[in-house]
From TrEMBL:
It is found in: Secreted. Pfam families: peroxidase (PF00141). It catalyses: 2 a phenolic donor + H2O2 = 2 a phenolic radical donor + 2 H2O. The keyword Metal-binding applies. Keywords: Calcium, Disulfide bond, Glycoprotein, Heme, Hydrogen peroxide, Iron, Metal-binding, Oxidoreductase, Peroxidase, Secreted, Signal. Substrate binds at P174. Removal of H(2)O(2), oxidation of toxic reductants, biosynthesis and degradation of lignin, suberization, auxin catabolism, response to environmental stresses such as wounding, pathogen attack and oxidative stress. These functions might be dependent on each isozyme/isoform in each plant tissue. Heme b binds at H204. GO terms for cellular component: extracellular region. This is Peroxidase. The active site is at H79 (proton acceptor). The record marks R75 as: Transition state stabilizer.
Length: 341
């Protein structure tokens, strides 16, 4: 894919930028390479041949009918992995309101029915073979690629968990107002690196956020009961946000990347650089020298798109290894959204 940015520097300066960028990414990558002995590529080659093509075909039809679905499925996979591992326990239901999906951070998560529809097609072809957890991972990959993001291979072989606890989501999902230190701690708890945090944050290049996720930046930011706004917000952008989200508005949404909300591109980093990041956690990337340097790289270098796409693919694979169940652990469910009580 062609870069969105062009460099006018000389060849010697370009070489220097590349060297500095390489050194920076080495420093940021404390543990971006991990092994997962029982996850593998093409896991279903003999037990359910062609399943990834089947999943992709079903998803393409769903995406064509609903352009807002791809970011929903990407978020669904992220919240599942961070909640209690990539085991599809976010999909489980509770009559008592005690499952992961009942936690406040998951109240606006969507895409459950899409995964169930895909699972039904897969079950018809290969009963009790392919896990809901693997379908989630495939769906996230296909969502990224459908929105013009990178195509990458997904490791498979996950099995589904059968215990879903609300407190896991409350404990492990990163907050929308976290600073870089806080976010790094949340990612480190999942054996993800600083670089994974900076790169996966850019999943916000597609999708929307509800007003409560960012309205604290618009009203009473100082905590003094006034109308002061977050001073790091671009003034014109802040004005647009207040027009959408009046105090107390919990239903309205705003694109995370206002320029290209349905395209997986560098718009996220451009928004951050221009102080037009919607969430405080995204704006915080400018407050740290290392994450700020990555933002700068993404908005000034001619090879930015290629670098970002390669980094994002690696970080998604890393995330897909969080707390996986393999071998005889867990189960393969015929239906993803079963009740646990």
């Amino acid at each position: 894919m062609a870069s969105l940015f062009r460099s006018s520097s000389s060849s010697s300066r370009s070489w220097l930028v590349l060297v500095l960028a390489t050194l920076m990414m080495m420093l940021m990558s404390s543990s971006t390479t991990r092994t997962s002995a029982q996850l593998q590529y093409d896991y279903y080659n003999t037990t359910c041949p062609g399943v990834e093509d089947l999943v992709r075909t079903e998803l393409l039809a769903l995406f064509a009918a609903d352009v807002t679905l791809p970011p929903g499925l990407l978020r669904l996979h992220f919240h599942d992995c961070f909640g209690a591992g990539c085991d599809a326990t976010l999909l489980l239901k509770s009559r008592n309101g005690t499952a992961q999906r009942d936690a406040d951070p998951n109240s606006t998560v969507r895409g459950y029915e899409a995964i169930e529809a895909v699972k039904a097609k897969v079950e018809a072809a290969c009963p009790l073979v392919v896990s809901c957890a693997d379908i989630l991972a495939m769906a996230a990959r296909d969502a990224v690629n459908y929105t013009q993001g990178p195509a990458y291979a997904v490791e498979t072989g996950r099995r589904d968990g059968n215990v879903s606890r609300k407190e896991d989501a409350l404990r492990f999902l990163p907050p929308a107002d976290g600073n870089v230190t806080v976010l790094t701690q949340y990612f480190a708890a999942q054996n993800l690196s600083y670089k994974d945090m900076v790169v996966l944050s850019a999943a916000h290049t597609i999708g929307v956020a509800h007003c409560p996720s960012f309205s604290p930046r618009l009203y009473n930011y100082s905590g003094a009961g006034d109308q002061q706004q977050d001073p790091s917000l671009d003034a014109a952008y802040a004005s647009n946000l207040t027009a959408v989200c009046a105090p107390g508005n919990v239903a309205s949404v705003q694109p995370l990347d206002a320029a290209t909300p349905n395209t997986f591109d560098l718009g996220y980093y451009q928004s951050v650089a221009e102080h037009r990041a919607l969430l405080a956690s995204d704006a915080a990337l400018l407050d740290d020298s290392l994450s700020g340097a990555y933002v700068n790289l993404m908005t000034t270098n001619a090879s930015s798109v290629d670098i970002f796409f390669a980094d994002f693919a690696v970080s998604m694979i890393n995330m897909g290894r969080i707390g996986v169940r393999t071998g005889t652990q867990g189960e393969i469910r015929a239906t993803c959204q079963v009740y646990v009580d």
